Amino acid sequence: MSAILTMLFTGLGRRFAYCGATVAAVGVAVWILLRQGKHAAEADLAIRRADARVRALQTSKDIRHDLQNTDRTDLERRADRWMRD
């Protein structure tokens, strides 16, 4: 009788160890995927911010260039129209 109980408990121990190892492996895999996803999202955000900054700088440069190369009367006309609107 004790031999049967020992075999049952040994089998349960092995099953619990197998299930525990499987759960641990899945948990580690999920943690790694979440961590990689977070790093990828942070990198994507940094790239989008850099692109937005480059676009803003280019727009500012274009506006400055247009203002420097436009004659005074055209600037006054634009300012008057802007103030009316």
Structural class: mainly alpha
| Structure annotation, total helices | 2
Integer average pLDDT:
87
Radius of gyration: 34 Å
> Could you give the distance between the termini?
97 Å
Number of strands: 0
Major sheet description: none
- Count of distinct structural domains: 1
Q: SSE order, as H and E?
A: HH
Global morphology: rod-shaped
Question: Which oligomeric form is depicted?
Answer: single chain
Uncertain regions spanning at least 5 consecutive residues: none
Helix content: over 70%
Share of β-strand residues: under 5%
Descriptive account of the structure:
It is built from two helices and no strands. The chain has one domain (2-84). By secondary structure, it is mainly α. The model has no long low-confidence stretch (mean pLDDT 87).
Could you name the key traits of this structure?
85 residues, 2 helices, 0% strand, mainly alpha
